[in-house]
Amino acid sequence: MFKFYLIAIIALIIFVVLNLYLPLEKANILFDSFNKVVIGFAAIITAYFGSSYFFEEVLRKRRIDSYRKMFPYDKYGDTWEIVVREDRNGEPHVLNKKTSEIHHLWNMKTIYDLGWQFYERKPVKKSGWDKYKRGDYIRTRGELGE
Q1: What are the phi and psi torsion angles at 76 (to 5°)?
Q2: Distance CA 89, CA 118 (A)
Q3: Number of other residues whose CB lies within 10 A of the CB of residue 13
Q4: Residue 136 CA from chain centroid, whole number
Q5: In this structure, are residues 136 and 67 in contact, taking their beta carbons and an 8 Å threshold?
């Protein structure tokens, strides 16, 4: 962090010295050139980081569409439901009744992305829980527990 401040102070000193001792036309040309280089550099950085953000958003939308097709709203309770184990707090899972698989919901961001935050969570006893197969986790974005 100290290096950044040092570079900023040196750049400021150079700017002031050039402003005082160069003729105005040459200083304007120099500063315009510097401005164009900095804008070009910023555009390259924005394109790099912006594209990764765009790619992540496209993947998120695809995951949401895929999970909504797999677990449609109008089939809640018939073919799937959100369940929790009775002896544990929280940790919502999706029970796919067709395949008898339980899918762990990765985090609250995923639940909000899918619009499942208002669905009732059915408690399941440990003995009933153990008879289900473990399926893949369901995640649209974020880290575990977010």
Answers
A1: -65, 130
A2: 17
A3: 10
A4: 19
A5: no
